[in-house]
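On clarity, I found the account of how folds are encoded harder to follow than it need be. Since the whole study asks how a given chain folds, the encoding of that fold should be made plain. For illustration, here is how one protein appears when written out as sequence plus structure tokens:
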Amino acid sequence: QVQLVDTGGGLVQAGGSLRLSCAASTRTFSGYSVGWFRQTLGKEREFVAFISWSGGGGRTYYTDSVKGRFTISRDNAKNTVYLQMNSLKPEDTAVYYCAADRGYVSGIQEPRSYDYWGQGTQVTVAS
């Protein structure tokens, strides 16, 4: 059983930056594909970004609304995946969750594709 811990959220002014971290309890985290999702009250969980496991070459993918502003990366030595968020907008306000699953993941934008989830971290962007 893999445990994920999301950290790094907070309150920031529009145009500012935050870096979220997703730390895993397993030392084989490089073998997991990881996605970031976000959710606001009353809405479904929304896909934000993805990075594949090491066997998949660390391929990344982003939803259109964050392309050019957000960057997902991983440090396998630290068993951690990051989401660097720049040029934040009020519409980025949400609870952000990381999710992981072993190896290849099909349907990377679907929450049900992932077995493991962090507890979420609140990001609030003030206008």
Summary: The chain has no helices and eleven strands.
